[in-house]
Amino acid sequence: MEIRAELETIPARGMRFFSHVPSEEGHVISKRATADCADYRQAEAVARGGGCRGGAGHSGAGGSDDPDGADFVSAVDDLHALLGPAGRAGLAGGSLAIGFANITGYSVLSGLAMGMEPICGQAFGAGRHSMLGLAMQRTTLLLLCSCLPVAALWAYMRPLLLLCGQDEAISAAAQTYILYSLPDLVLQSFLHPLRIYLRAQSVNLPLTFCAAAAIVLHFPVNYLFVSVLRLGIRGVALASVCANLNLVLLLLAYVHLSGVHKRTGGFALSAESFRGWGPLLALSLPSAASVCLEWWWYEIMILLCGLLADPQATVASMGILIQTTSLIYIFPSSLSFGVSTRVANELGANRPHRARRAANVGLACGFALGFAALSFAVSVRRVWARMFTADAAILQLTASALPILGLCELGNCPQTTGCGVLRGSARPKVGANVNLGSFYAVGMPVAVGLAFWAGLDFRGLWLGLLSAQAACVVLMLAVIKTTDWDAQADRAQALTGAASDGGGAAFLGSDEKDALQPKPAAVGGDEKTSLVITIQTDPSS
């Protein structure tokens, strides 16, 4: 079996990236440092500890993507450091708005878009190329409809923040930032489906090149808006919108010039796009739940840190550790996308044995990544935090938690890969149930009990996360081990409308149903199976 690695773009894993801005007193403030702070003064105090109270996510299973997913520690994310010239209230308000947007908007869109992934992957494997165009149209419409309640919530962000006791100036700045970010919701509604549409066809390098070009273009645009035109926080938001606009336009240009769209029915909106949403919603809703459950868990971890003894040090250390997990998460998340595409393609082509082989190879790679992450975390535990701070308390907390973080990644890497297997086999409900049970029924009680009742404080929270990851990987492996791959291949034929009985053909248009013919299972299993590993940077994160 041949494993092929390529770089692509994947959605950011929630709020798990932190770019730093020097404060007026020379301290380092995360651009998301104030997302959960009662006011800017608290954020400044946290910054003195060298860390942040910002959110954690991508993934974004999202993502993930998701996250829609990880990221290369996004260069564009770092450009939000230009919030600094917007003033203290601008920095705090922008940070608060970014956190609010991730939790209430981007995580939802990323998760909903993931419902399209198994449909496109299995349809491509089954040779039902016209379904890819139809799936993209329906998913885009679904995301655009989802933007309406999100936009309404964003429009009333300031009153909500004031109701929660936020400072008036910070709330006003946050409202300004998020209002100027509203066009980004529409762009994300096109961007997520475009990515999945191309990735399902193993079109990866163009995604990488387009994302890189969008990032390069973002530098002068951000500088123009913030430093030349002096638009302040409005300029930062508009620059992020322009980054995603450039990426969408570049991807559309590639699709048009390459002719990829011709075999998938084109992009012309049809009446069929407004019907037969049942199969899509059945996959999108649990996918969104799975992504949000994981993103919000890290938010809760940050909040719990603020209740511990010496909250400045614990929150700062948590920020450093979450950045570390974001860096490590790039690799299993990329592997997960490759596994998902390969499993979906093989099931759609009615080759269950090759789908199982791809899943097993992916899990083996996931465990290898987990051991590499554990070795990395243990080896750098005494020096890693020095890149962020010289505070002795933060250094000690980070050094004590890094081995636990490594053990968490030992479970997280194969678990993330397993999520890709579930996405590829169109079983997002299973993933959502695994996340709910592992993180909230196991991890949360253990974290609270060890941190506050057993007196383990900061380490107790990470041991709670370790228990959640352990439960998650065990459940995920049990699900995959007991998978009936022949039955999953039959489900794929039903989903794509390729089964002889026409099961699942509701996803197709009436004209497509008449043209369906069952595809025979492939004979033999000696062919090479390639596993495409994708890495993605989201310019808007």
From TrEMBL:
<feature type="transmembrane region" description="Helical">
    <location>
        <begin position="460"/>
        <end position="480"/>
    </location>
</feature>
<feature type="transmembrane region" description="Helical">
    <location>
        <begin position="139"/>
        <end position="157"/>
    </location>
</feature>
<feature type="transmembrane region" description="Helical">
    <location>
        <begin position="392"/>
        <end position="411"/>
    </location>
</feature>
<keyword id="KW-1133">Transmembrane helix</keyword>
<comment type="similarity">
    <text>Belongs to the multi antimicrobial extrusion (MATE) (TC 2.A.66.1) family.</text>
</comment>
<feature type="transmembrane region" description="Helical">
    <location>
        <begin position="203"/>
        <end position="225"/>
    </location>
</feature>
<feature type="transmembrane region" description="Helical">
    <location>
        <begin position="318"/>
        <end position="337"/>
    </location>
</feature>
<dbReference type="Pfam" id="PF01554">
    <property type="entry name" value="MatE"/>
</dbReference>
<dbReference type="InterPro" id="IPR002528">
    <property type="entry name" value="MATE_fam"/>
</dbReference>
<dbReference type="GO" id="GO:0015297">
    <property type="term" value="F:antiporter activity"/>
</dbReference>
<feature type="transmembrane region" description="Helical">
    <location>
        <begin position="276"/>
        <end position="298"/>
    </location>
</feature>
<feature type="transmembrane region" description="Helical">
    <location>
        <begin position="358"/>
        <end position="380"/>
    </location>
</feature>
<protein>
    <recommendedName>
        <fullName>Protein DETOXIFICATION</fullName>
    </recommendedName>
</protein>
<feature type="transmembrane region" description="Helical">
    <location>
        <begin position="432"/>
        <end position="454"/>
    </location>
</feature>
<feature type="transmembrane region" description="Helical">
    <location>
        <begin position="231"/>
        <end position="255"/>
    </location>
</feature>
<dbReference type="GO" id="GO:1990961">
    <property type="term" value="P:xenobiotic detoxification by transmembrane export across the plasma membrane"/>
</dbReference>
<dbReference type="GO" id="GO:0042910">
    <property type="term" value="F:xenobiotic transmembrane transporter activity"/>
</dbReference>
<dbReference type="InterPro" id="IPR045069">
    <property type="entry name" value="MATE_euk"/>
</dbReference>
<dbReference type="GO" id="GO:0016020">
    <property type="term" value="C:membrane"/>
</dbReference>
<keyword id="KW-0812">Transmembrane</keyword>
<keyword id="KW-0472">Membrane</keyword>
